[in-house]
Every structure is written in structure tokens, then in C-alpha cells.
Amino acid sequence: MENNTTVLQEAESLIYGDREQDYGKTSDNFADIAKGWEVIFKTKITPEQVGLAMIWLKVCRGNKDNCEKRDSIVDIAGYAGCIEKIKLGI
Asked: What is the pTM of this model?
């Protein structure tokens, strides 16, 4: 992305851009992930929890050895946006 693009603008362009063409509707994709995690963890998982877990993954990666990469922050914002899309039914 361009240097003058904010983290939030970059995240928004990702979640409302080509990602849906590549991976399908966010709610469907996260529901599919949740189904797999339910088998692995033997507990009910919601699509929203998938988004929260992915945010946590990015937080943990960002804290590793002071490895604060912009793409991790963009992804955190993007996953928050995905949770919003799921809650709004977009």
C-alpha cells in the first residue's frame, strides 16, 4: 500500500476487496473454519470467535522478539472488520 494509507484504510481495502472473491463471503469462510475447530477442540466455536482467535494470533506474533510488523497490525484491524461484517450480515 502507499505510504500515506492508514492501517484502517489498508485493512478495509483487504476485507472489502479481492479477499471475498478469493475466499468467499466472510461469514461463510469463518463458519467453515469454526466447524473444523469444533472437531479439533471438541467444543462449539462461532465465526466471531474465529475472528477473535485470529486477532490473538496476530497479537502474539507481533509481540515475538519485538517483531512489530505493519502487516500484523493491518491484519488485526482486518479481522476486527471481519467480525463486524459477520455481525452485520454483510
From this structure: 0.86
Which DSSP letter does residue 89 get?
T
2 — pLDDT class (breaks 50, 70, 90): low
Tell me the average pLDDT across 42-64.
92
d(CA 40, CA 66): 31
For cell 479481492, name the residue: 18
Rounded to whole angstroms, how far apart are CA atoms 88 and 79? 14
| Cα 63 from Cα 37, distance rounded (Å) | 24
The DSSP secondary-structure symbol of 43 reads: S
